[in-house]
Design brief:
By secondary structure, this protein is mainly α. The protein has one domain. Helices cover 63% and strands 2% of the residues. The chain has a two-stranded antiparallel sheet with strand order 1-2. α2 crosses α7 and α2 crosses α11. It starts with 20 loop residues before the first helix and ends in a 7-residue tail after the last helix. InterPro entries: MPAB/Lcp_cat_dom. This is ER-bound oxygenase mpaB/mpaB'/Rubber oxygenase catalytic domain-containing protein.
Amino acid sequence: MSTQSPRRTTEGHDPPPVGGILWTVAGELRSVLALPAAMTMQVAHPAVGAGVDQYSVFRTDPWGRGERSLRSVQLWVYGGPEAEAEGRRLRRLHTSIQGVDAHGRPYRALDPSVYAWVHATGYPVYLRAQRYLGTRPFTAAEERRLYGEWLRVGRVLGIDDREMPGSVEEFWPYYRAMVRERLEPTAVARELAAPDAPVPPPGPPPLRLLWPLLRPLFTRFRAFLTAGLMPPDAREAIGLRWTRERERRLRWFGRAVRVVVPLLPERLRYLPLAREARRRARAGGRGPGP
């Protein structure tokens, strides 16, 4: 395993364009629903799973960690000049994350192939979330545009172009090889996907009082979305169960989401950083995106 840290391949930050596909989908509520599937695919890589198991606070502070992760993703897309600073912050944060995985193999969080896989998981999950929760699946042209924008995010994060496939056509053989050769049901992946995971209560007092009743509903719903919005081959590699009945339920849920989310006012439909970026874009005459 290489120990070289990821490096930038372009000068200056190069975030996705205003009005692009990521601009439209990354800050909407539907992106939050897809996040558990991508995170579980990430930690199914033994090196990533070991790093999260040994260094993350996801067990003791899952709500804080989730909030920080969401803010980070939003900065990559909507942060403008802050995107590059966020990329540098993440690389500094991961510099000291290293150790031995469950198989006794040394790992480093900034190993280029490991760092690239964490980023790569977002692309197939965006496609699958769009298929189930969006108005319609992406066209082939839109899939290529989305992948090009995702590569730009990777450069912001300091991922070497050589570690990411350069096109959609090259991505899928890389993805299938990673799923086949690297993914496994790591302890953290199983924990994140468990319908009875021991999740501590969130901060607000009313929710804390109701959490004994709400926790089983929340963890089952999270497990349902985790498996449902994950590509089937990754789901199988991790050992997650899926049935025809669950598939029907996911399709019905997607229909409801497609009706309800577009009717929400912008302040409820979009996350805070996305709302502010859209406001600035309108003020600058660039519009809120498609």
